[in-house]
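Structure (tokenized):
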């Protein structure tokens, strides 16, 4: 699951746009209206500030949203915390980078370690090995969620990534989180009621079809733990790890999620490899990636999804270590920034006018 968790890896800080980058020209509109917003994660093609800013630019030219992961800064919200200049700078820079480009901001504040979703990530000295039963850590998480809502005013705020993976690894940690989530949800809504608040579910593991994990029946009952406090049913999905080619993804694959709770579906993020994976993980090609993207957008339309965020706009230009190398070919453009076969599908969808969902503005200024 570390492979899938790479979609939530923390990126380098985005630079503060000085005067402001040139906003992209109005996008030509043609074709049938679409009911969902499009976007990419802010994962850069190179590990530089410039490349990170370029990821924002790509999202602005061919979508409406940008998804930014955020590891908790526990120490900044624990009792006796001092002012955190780095936290303030990053908060402002992400907000302004999105606003200058007219992008809605999707913030993913994830308390769990992407490499082991049964434990908390990046705990400060003196709190190693503790969990959310600790009152100080509970308060710190709730206060950071409130801080993000108040100072970034994101359109969307995820308060945990792939939370069902936490359930599979440590049910106690999962139950602790569901209690904290209720507090955090209320805190966010108190300062930014328009922000859509939710957690994400790893769809392949939710269905029990990850080939290297023990199979199990679909865990739809986990959605009940969040009923009434999920503004979206957000699914991260990388089916090229479960199915060798796109044509083997079952016809009703995403339709199974329809109607499970009273909230719109969002794909956050989705991806499909464009090259064969090592050790025979998949047999994918650019054509298979194109087929899957076309299928995904069709399913998003049929399900009246609100949001489709693709994991990589561009493949990384740097060597990606195992196991996350299996995600390295999910970009719709290659490492030289040349379009793959699927790019034309995305570009065509981006030109379609929005219908039934308001075109979002950039983040508000607190």
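Design, position by position:
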């Amino acid at each position: 699951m570390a492979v899938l968790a790479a979609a939530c890896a923390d990126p380098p800080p985005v630079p503060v746009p000085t005067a402001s980058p040139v906003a992209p020209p109005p996008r030509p509109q043609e074709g049938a209206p679409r009911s969902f917003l499009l976007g990419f994660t802010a994962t850069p093609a190179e590990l530089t500030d410039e490349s990170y800013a370029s990821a924002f630019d790509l999202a602005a030219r061919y979508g409406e949203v940008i998804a930014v992961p955020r590891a908790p800064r526990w120490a900044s919200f624990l009792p006796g915390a001092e002012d955190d200049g780095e936290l303030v700078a990053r908060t402002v820079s992400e907000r302004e980078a999105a606003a200058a480009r007219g992008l809605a901001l999707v913030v993913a504040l994830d308390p769990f370690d992407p490499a082991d979703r049964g434990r908390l990530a990046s705990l400060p000295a003196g709190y190693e090995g503790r969990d959310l039963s600790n009152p100080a850590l509970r308060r710190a998480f709730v206060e950071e969620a409130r801080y993000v809502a108040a100072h970034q005013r994101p359109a969307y705020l995820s308060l945990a990534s792939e939370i069902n993976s936490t359930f599979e690894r440590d049910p106690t940690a999962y139950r602790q989180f569901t209690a904290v989530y209720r507090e955090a949800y209320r805190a966010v809504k108190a300062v930014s009621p328009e922000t859509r608040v939710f957690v994400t579910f790893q769809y392949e593991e939710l269905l029990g079809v990850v080939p290297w994990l023990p199979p199990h029946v679909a865990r739809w009952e986990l959605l009940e733990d969040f009923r009434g406090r999920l503004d979206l049913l957000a699914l991260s999905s990388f089916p090229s790890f479960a199915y060798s080619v796109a044509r083997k993804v079952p016809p009703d694959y995403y339709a199974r999620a329809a109607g499970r709770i009273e909230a719109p579906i969002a794909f956050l993020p989705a991806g499909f490899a464009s090259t064969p994976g090592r050790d025979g993980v998949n047999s994918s090609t650019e054509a298979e990636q194109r087929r899957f993207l076309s299928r995904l957008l069709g399913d998003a339309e049929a399900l009246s999804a609100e949001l489709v965020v693709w994991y990589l706009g561009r493949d990384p230009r740097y060597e990606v270590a195992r196991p996350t190398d299996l995600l390295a070919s999910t970009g719709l453009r290659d490492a030289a920034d040349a379009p793959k076969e699927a790019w034309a599908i995305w570009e065509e969808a981006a030109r379609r006018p929005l219908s039934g969902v308001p075109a979002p503005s950039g983040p508000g200024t607190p």
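Reviewer-requested clarification: The mean pLDDT is 91. Residues 162 and 202 are 5 Å apart (CA to CA).
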